[in-house]
Amino acid sequence: MNLQIELKHSEEIQKFLCVLNLGMLDSVLEGALTIEDAYTYLYRPYVAQLLEQNNANKKIIELFEECCMLEDIQDIAPEKLQDVLKLKRLETLDLLKSIPNTEKSMYWLNKFDE
Questions:
Q1: Are 99 and 18 in contact (CB under 8 A)?
Q2: How far is 5 from 7, CA to CA, in rounded Å?
Q3: How many other CB atoms are there within 10 angstroms of residue 27's CB atom?
Q4: pLDDT above 70 for 62
Q5: Do 96 and 19 meet the contact criterion of CB atoms below 8 Å apart?
Q6: DSSP 79
């Protein structure tokens, strides 16, 4: 199986990553994934760099930079991790709501209905 996701517009990239982030945060909050899993899958500096290269909202860039530090919070102050995860979830929702819609909704998965 080969899954390809191709997004060309900055707004769509930002939306996709925010939706993905919500799922990642919920998965960690519910114990379906670990912080280490989330770091492997999404919370890498590359994501913030990609957003910056695509002229993303500065707050979204900062959000992903901060999510890269969740592993540090787990190590340094594990008692605060749940609250930080919940806060990042709310921030992600607010940012997702703030992203303007593109003229036409786009398929996120290539060849989705072929």
A1: yes
A2: 7
A3: 15
A4: yes
A5: yes
A6: G
Structural domain contains residue 107:
no
| Phi, psi (rounded to 5 degrees) for 5 | -125, 125
Separation of first and last alpha carbons in the chain: 15
pTM (two decimals)? 0.88
Residue 113 has pLDDT above 60, yes or no: no
Dihedral pair phi/psi, residue 77, rounded to 5°:
-140, 70
Q: Tens digit of pLDDT for each residue in 70-99?
A: 999 999 999 999 999 999 999 999 999 999
Tell me whether residue 16 is in a domain.
Answer: yes
Range of the domain at 79: 10-97
Q: Sign of torsion, CA 93 94 96 102?
A: positive
